[in-house]
Amino acid sequence: MSKYATPTPRLAFDKQLAIVRAFVVATQGSDKAPTNNQIGDLANMAGTTVSLMNGFLASIGLLEKRDGGYFPTATAKAYAQAYQWNPVEAGQKLQPALRESWFGAALLPKLSMGALPEDDAIQRIAEAAEAEPALRPRLVILLDWLEEAALITRTEGRVTARADARTTTEQRSSNVIDPPNPQPTAVRKMPPRLSGDEGISFSISV
Question: How many of the other CB atoms lie within 10 Å of CB of 18?
Fold first, then answer.
């Protein structure tokens, strides 16, 4: 069990991304929510398989549910548009949604302090979701999503925050507010003291 929606391990990660793009294509020029079968036809999978992902994609801000169906968000549309020009780097358009996702919020601030073994990163996500060990395959896919968005890198069993993502996370997580610069206090200028030879002498005759 998990208190958050998680992606199904029954669907390859590239197919999960294809569902996002299919929603964008299916809703172009239409205000009607597409069916799971329509999305499946575009993404080359069964409509029942699509239904396994809708809740998760909505939970991370790539789909929104309204009018009895699902529609792509602005972030999903930006990703689909970028994918047409550069499939390799298009995932960076997913950053706004994934940085704010429950698993991004659980992991990225910790990674801003340094790299973690992948097992520790997964455990941290599991603790945030109150997930049981049987859900580990689903939690591993969450790292795939963060990596696709160029928020993390995974090398030799370690998870590291991307330098640009780390800087943004540090800025967002900081609650320190610099005090305003104090206004300079006006200094009252005093007339110069007169030295002995500049003094005024009085002569009194009796």
Answer: 19
Using CA atoms, how far residue 71 sits from 36, 39, 48, in Å, is 12, 11, 17
Which pLDDT score, from 0 to 100, does residue 203 have?
A: 43
Sheet of 116-117, strands arranged across: 116-117, 158-161, 152-155
Residue 75 carries which side chain, given as an amino acid letter?
T
Question: What is the average per-residue pLDDT within 121-132?
Answer: 97
Q: In Å, what is the CA distance from 122 to each residue of 42, 81, 100, 107, 158?
A: 32, 31, 17, 9, 11
For the record, the structure tokens of 166 come out as 């780390």
Cα 11 from Cα 32, distance rounded (Å): 26
**CA angle 70-76-77, nearest 5°?**
100
Read off the tokens for 145: 């999503």
pTM over 0.90: no
pLDDT band at 198 (very low <50, low <70, confident <90, very high): very low
Contact 99, 92 (CB under 8 A): no
Q: What are phi and psi of 110, to 5 degrees?
A: -65, -40
Give Cα separations from 52 to 33, 49, 151 (angstroms): 17, 5, 25
DSSP at 134:
G
